[in-house]
Specification:
The complex is a heterodimer of chains A (about 400) and B (about 270).
Chain A (H helix, E strand, L loop, with lengths): L6 H14 L4 H10 L4 H9 L18 H30 L1 H6 L2 H12 L5 E4 L15 E4 L5 E11 L6 E7 L13 E7 L5 E5 L10 E11 L4 E2 L5 H7 L1 H29 L1 E2 L2 E2 L4 H29 L5 H25 L11 H10 L7 H12 L7
Helix pairs in contact in A: 1-4, 2-4, 4-8, 8-9, 8-10, 8-11, 9-10, 10-11, 10-12
Chain B lengths: L1 E5 L2 E3 L7 E2 L4 E2 L5 E3 L1 H16 L6 E7 L5 H9 L4 E5 L9 H13 L5 E5 L10 H9 L3 E11 L5 E8 L2 E8 L2 E5 L11 H6 L5 E4 L40 H14 L4
Parallel strand pairs in B: 1-6, 1-8, 6-7, 7-13, 8-12, 9-12
Antiparallel strand pairs in B: 2-5, 3-4, 9-10, 10-11
Helix pairs in contact in B: 3-4
Classes of the chains: A alpha+beta (about 400), B alpha/beta (about 270).
The structure holds flavin-adenine dinucleotide.
């Protein structure tokens, strides 16, 4: 058994940490406060080729695995960039997975090289207000307009980065739920232009990760050429499912990175702050929760490394990817919560940054998949208990 | 024109430096990295190449160090060097600055560079002297603490350099070949691209032992070094500062001004 990362993987970690390190906590606090997309951060990573880390080489990428992508996003988050930094590039790195796997050559040629060079921003349009986690209940509908092309109507919610995006990877129904044999049938995926004349985009005021917008989308008569369809009609849900495990792995490492950033600050403050004539870190009531957070982060790290490794080996990894997301989100959140506690009142002040980490870490327990749905998966598919929902 | 850049693997800047009490030397376990000053030297070489005033055929990264130093070379080529040379030999362990400079010079002779660049100091040893020792062995002129460098195509090819001296700035003209050590103010090193990182191992690397470059064994290593490490002490702990409580701001300002004045800082 070999737990060591390769030299290349270590070089990736270090290079990302160095580049991300040029954008400090003040940079992120300001982007967050002003709700400004981190353009210069994004450009620095795009220019150095990081956005194409998993994109196949024939489209200009580097064709590396999910393990390498996870090291990238973990270091980004751990630099203090947190979910603001990770979300600015997360979808470009991972979201195009269904297109790479199922898209036509033409669709790939016209989009992937631009994803890699950073010039094409794409958002991911799955969630709907009336479907929630039960994705089969989406109602956004793509109707053939007589010829081969489609017209789409419907509503999406929480669509991140839509304001910056030129295109949307859009999950629709092409057959209504009541007309399909299997409820997962009849859904179709498109990678199409987010035409502002036909799509009204409204940002949702939210708790954290405010540098990257999340939006409601009101889609009214969006025309979509047939060439923008990803793969076959009716198989969209299956294509999305293919990407769930890597998505879980990447969200897991983002939570992990945030937890590490929070712990780093907590330890620094514990060493520095003197109350009752001694460093607060000398109190076990402060020290033990941090030591415990470290143990949980390290244990969660092992799970997510294993999940990524399995995925890259082409082995089944749903159990590990789900567990990794679950454990990392909890460990990251707990570390952030404890970092706030260690800082006392200053933990509540923006100046110390841990409240920002805390707000962002909270997100990883909800999206893109809630902790409850992970437990549903493990209960049903790993333990063999009855389906509970 | 061929540029050789001397590089060194040093303990990572993030690692707390400490003396190993059992050896009296710096503890070099733990994370290591390419000496940050050397990244400025590589960047300077890249800027000469990209500046176009002269044709740069090759940029070669050269290091002397144990097997792990390969990682510093990989980083150097990921930052733009075309290939690298790794001088590694058990006989070299414990070399002082003079012995190291001699060994590096012997290695450089094999390359016949037109320009040798290096960082003005290493993050661990901080001797500032390797450039001068190497230049002496190579019979080349040497400049230190260079913070600006412009190439004037020849013949003869010349460099116009600005040096950061204690008393101000020198502008110096030097004819190539020369050995130039650079300060960190010379440029803002680029960050390696992902493709460059992944391609680093594919760039040629010459592994050399002392016999390959005519290094006399008795002039290197602990036995060939005349500087013997004596006792090492950690620096004295910083004394606690003076805290001026801000009760009345006018009074506080006066106190601070008086404190600074006393020490002739204003
Ligand atoms: C900041 C942010 C960014 C986002 N970005 C995107 C994006 O870019 N694209 C996109 O498509 N979506 C995005 N989302 C949406 C996200 O994926 C969903 O919010 C998430 O999947 C949860 O779905 P929901 O909000 O509809 O929760 P609901 O389905 O309404 O669930 C509410 C709660 O009930 C629980 N619950 C529901 N059913 C069960 C059950 N059977 N058993 C146990 N518990 C249950 C859930 O776990 C959850 O806690 C984003 C969300 C946020 C907050």
């Amino acid at each position: 058994m070999d737990f060591e990362l390769t030299d290349d993987q270590k070089s990736i970690q270090r290079a990302v940490a160095e580049l991300a390190g040029t954008f400090d906590d003040e940079y992120w606090a300001e982007r967050d406060e002003k709700h400004e997309f981190p353009w210069d951060f994004y450009k620095a990573f795009a220019d150095a080729g990081w956005i194409g880390i998993t994109t196949p080489e024939e489209f200009g990428g580097t064709g590396l695995g999910i393990l390498e992508a996870s090291l990238l996003l973990e270091e980004v988050a751990a630099s203090g960039a947190g979910m603001n930094g990770a979300s600015s590039m997360h979808l470009s790195i991972f979201g195009m997975h269904p297109v790479i796997k199922h898209g036509s050559d033409e669709l790939k040629q016209s989009t992937l090289p631009r994803i890699v060079d950073g010039s094409l921003h794409v958002c991911f349009g799955v969630t709907e207000p009336n479907a929630g986690l039960d994705t089969t209940r989406i109602t956004t509908y793509a109707k053939r307009n007589g010829g081969g092309d489609y017209v789409v109507n419907g509503r999406k919610v929480w669509i991140s980065k839509a304001l910056e995006s030129e295109k949307v990877l859009l999950l629709t129904r092409t057959t209504k739920l009541e007309d399909v044999d299997k409820k997962t049938d009849g859904m179709t995926l498109f990678l199409t232009d987010l035409d502002r004349d036909k799509v009204d985009i409204r940002p949702i005021p939210k708790m954290g990760r405010k540098a990257v917008d999340s939006n409601e989308l009101f889609i009214d008569g969006l025309e979509v050429p047939e060439e923008h369809r990803v793969g076959e009609e009716g198989k969209g849900f299956k294509y999305i499912l293919d990407g769930l495990n890597p998505e879980r792995i990447l969200v897991a490492v983002e939570a992990l990175g945030l937890g590490r950033a929070a712990l780093r600050r907590a330890v620094a403050y514990g060493n520095e702050r003197v109350v009752f004539g001694r460093q607060i870190g000398a109190n076990q009531g402060i020290q033990f929760p941090l030591a415990d957070a470290l143990a949980r982060l390290d244990a969660a790290t092992l799970m997510v490394r294993k999940a990524a490794w399995l995925y890259d080996q082409g082995l089944p990894c749903a159990r590990e990817a789900n567990m990794a997301k679950y454990l990392c989100a909890d460990a990251g959140f707990q570390a952030a919560d404890r970092a706030v506690q260690v800082h006392g009142g200053m933990g509540y002040a923006s100046e110390y940054h841990v409240e920002r980490y805390f707000r962002e870490a909270r997100l990883t327990r909800i999206a893109p998949i809630s902790q409850e749905m992970i437990l549903n998966y493990l209960g049903e598919h790993v333990l063999g208990l009855p389906r509970s929902y | 024109m061929k540029i050789c850049v001397l590089v060194k693997e040093v303990p990572d800047a993030a690692v707390q430096k400490r003396i190993d009490p059992s050896t009296g030397r710096m503890d070099r376990n733990g994370e290591k990295n390419l000496n940050p000053y050397d990244t400025h030297a590589i960047e300077a070489a890249m800027q000469i190449r990209e500046g176009g005033a002269v044709e740069v055929d090759e940029i070669v990264a050269v290091t002397m160090g144990p097997s792990t130093a390969i990682r510093a070379l990989h980083k150097a080529v990921s930052l733009g060097a075309d290939r690298s040379v790794h001088l590694s030999d058990d006989a070299l362990a414990g070399s002082d600055v003079a012995a190291t400079g001699y060994a590096l010079a012997q290695t450089l002779k094999r390359e016949s560079p037109d320009l040798v660049l290096l960082g003005q100091q290493s993050d661990d040893g901080e001797c500032y002297t390797i450039g001068a020792v190497v230049a002496d062995h190579l019979q080349m002129p040497s400049l230190t603490q260079v913070i600006q460098m412009d190439v004037e195509a020849g013949p003869p090819t010349q460099l116009r350099c600005e040096r950061q001296a204690e008393y101000g700035y020198d502008t110096v003209q030097v004819e190539l070949p020369a050995v130039i050590s650079v300060g960190d103010a010379i440029n803002e090193p680029r960050y390696p691209s992902l493709k460059a990182i992944m391609g680093a191992k594919k760039k040629p690397l010459d592994a050399l032992a002392i016999g390959d470059v005519d290094i006399a064994a008795d002039r290197v290593g602990e036995s060939g070094s005349k500087v013997i490490c004596g006792d090492f002490k950690a620096p004295p702990a910083k004394s606690a500062g003076e805290i001026i409580e801000d009760e009345d701001t006018n009074e506080t300002v006066e106190k601070i001004v008086a404190w600074l004045d006393e020490r002739k800082l204003i």
